[in-house]
Amino acid sequence: MNFVTNREAALRPACALRPAAEMTMWFTVLAGLVVLSFSYVKAFCPHLPADCVYILRSLGLGFRLLKYRKRKPIYSVLDCFLDAVKRHPAKTFLHFEGREYSYEEVDRQSNKVARALQAEARLKEGDTVALFLPNEPGFVWTWLGLAKLGCPAALLNFNIRSKSLLHCFSCCGAKVIITCTELQDAVEEILPTLREQGISVYLMSDKCGVQGINPLSEKISKASDQPLSRDLRANIHIRTTALYIYTSGTTGLPKAAVVTHERVWAASFLQAASGVTSEDVFYINLPLYHSAGFLIGLCGSIERGNTVVLRRKFSASQFWDDCRKNNVTVMQYIGETLRYLCNMPKKDNEKNHKVRIAIGNGLRTDVWTEFLNRFGDIKIRELYAATEGNIGFINYTSKIGAVGRVNFVHRFLFPYTLIKFDIEKEEPVRNSQGLCIEASTGETGLLVGKITHRSPFVGYAGNKQQTEKKRLSDVLVKGDLYFNTGDLLRFDKDNFVYFQDRVGDTFRWKGENVATSEVADILTMAHCIQEANVYGVKVEGHEGRIGMAAVTLREGEDFDCSDSYRHVVNYLPAYARPRFIRVQPCLEMTGTFKMKKVKLVEEGFNPSLITDPLFFLDLEKKKYVPLTEEIYKAITLKEIKL
Ligand SMILES: *[C@@H]1O[C@H](CO)[C@@H](O)[C@H](O)[C@H]1NC(C)=O
Ligand SMILES: *[C@@H]1O[C@H](CO)[C@@H](O)[C@H](O)[C@H]1NC(C)=O
């Protein structure tokens, strides 16, 4: 049976169960559900058994979280790691570039780091430390070392530079930053400002000639590897900040989401909930600075006590060889990575591997089908949730395309709803009393989750304005408060939940909403197109924005004007067709493989400003034609009708 959970939904019931009355109610509900699930009901409610398994598993994990919540002193993921070290010290915890590190080795190394930092940086409980490190074992033991000192870690994205880096660093209030030689240049660039602010910079290296950057490696190797006292983190409780994780927007500067210990637990349960065991080998190829790689991947593996194969970065060409070599059984995916795997040339041994589960989000149905056809029977655990959000779903039935199900227990405990949304104004539709309007079944709406004690929204560090922007009040009644997910979803009549788009990834043209991801799926079906990034651009004198796509071509292919035209016209309604195509050598991505759109939108479609080849969908010639200055002029003069 397909089973389930989701990061918040499944795990949240945990924090929920409080007084005895509530418990009793719960058991009644539960008992009712179990009884109902007997097979004759199956005929009428085919999804009920799956719903029940989901609820039961969720409750199991929920009770565990409840236990952890009450435990004094706190039982954190670090304590879970220390228990794993006791249980199986010699077991491999990390595999990295051909080297293995046992649980015990990682533990000892983290003791050394903690001691070196304690002596050098005079760190004490509660001091935030920014980690600016790539995916490597040092990331893991430095974080563990900080946790042993009771210090929250801010996980900086190692791709960001200068202003952005400074912004991320400042908003978490850290006084210390730790980096490595590979990223030293980026830190040197902002060093004057850091020094002005009295920030200490530590480098994972034996020496450094730059004033103001302190080498740390020698101090670490000389430090004792003996365990640190628990007293160092005596004041930490389940709702203190464990981490700051930056949400990678496709727009604007990143925001630091506050992640409490409770939230770390909840997210780490996702592996357990997906059926991952302690025998599994978990492949992390996503950046550790995001929740997917760090919370679901790393913390999840600690919770399970399994082995992690860590990679510096995702590589489509190395992927399956890596999996075979390391006996990987569980993989993670996000956004486009499965598409990249499907775009690789076919090989005979593609199904020869041990991967049995894939956990992630953002999978499109076309890719999913091809992925299974090519790489064999892998269970896909698609989930919907946001780092900072207070609501989530997981795909626990075999409904293709659905990210989850509306489940009344879940909804009762964590009230959420879909509200009508105005794509043009990018705000919820409100009625004459100023309240939002719930979307009807089958209609796309904005997902909002009620902010309660059970499902809190902690917000972003040092960013009141952004935090406020995510809070929505007067939703269903005056004075209520909801978390605005910024995601557009749809519930169908059988209660399946479909992810439609992110606000901003949908644009409006001729009064119709265009979901960019759907258009991209069609474009990539054209044989010459490898990847497509779809967005809307403004045209003088027109309402809304017209469709445009930046594409990359398959190796050895030219842009096929007729074939692409045929695909677009056959599969897309007129308003959704990209009228402009921009051919690029590669598409710009964020750290989590989301495509960057803002710059493209601003650059528009003016051939005298853009050097990439541009094409225009010509309805008369029935193909795409090169976008010349003449055509451009004719469009702006409205001689060509759009
Ligand atoms: C993978 O599994 C095979 C067979 O079970 C074993 O011989 C091999 O040593 C394993 N490789 C690693 C890296 O654990
Ligand atoms: C949900 O999971 C099932 C079974 O693993 C799969 O068939 C389906 O495609 C998944 N849906 C999505 C959106 O991934």
How would you characterize the overall build of this protein?
With 642 residues, the protein is of the alpha/beta class. It has three domains: 327 residues, ANL, N-terminal domain (Rossmann fold), CATH 3.40.50; 98 residues, Luciferase, Domain 3 (Luciferase, domain 3, Roll); 132 residues, ANL, C-terminal domain (GMP Synthetase, Chain A, domain 3, 2-Layer Sandwich), CATH 3.30.300.30. The protein has 21 helices and 30 strands. An eight-stranded mixed β-sheet has the order 2-1-11-10-12-13-14-15. Strands 7-6-5-3-4-8-9 form a seven-stranded mixed β-sheet, with helices on both faces. Strands 16, 17, 20, 21, 22 and 23 form a six-stranded antiparallel β-sheet that branches. The protein is globular. It binds 2-acetamido-2-deoxy-beta-D-glucopyranose (2 copies). The site of one 2-acetamido-2-deoxy-beta-D-glucopyranose (NAG) has 2 residues, from loops.
In short:
The protein is α/β, with parallel strands linked by helices. It contains 21 helices and 30 strands.
Features:
23% strand, transmembrane, Rossmann fold, AMP-bd_C, 642 residues, EC 6.2.1.3, eight-stranded mixed beta sheet, lipid metabolism, globular, long-chain fatty acid transmembrane transporter activity, binds 2-acetamido-2-deoxy-beta-D-glucopyranose, Luciferase, domain 3, disordered N terminus, alpha/beta, GMP Synthetase, Chain A, domain 3
How many separate domains make up the residues?
Answer: 3
Q: What percentage of residues falls in helices of 4 or more residues?
A: 25-40%
The DSSP helix count reads 21
CATH topology of the largest domain: Rossmann fold
Stretches where pLDDT is under 50 for at least 5 consecutive residues are: 1-43
CATH class descriptor name of the largest domain: Alpha Beta
Radius of gyration: 26 Å
pLDDT averaged residue by residue = 84
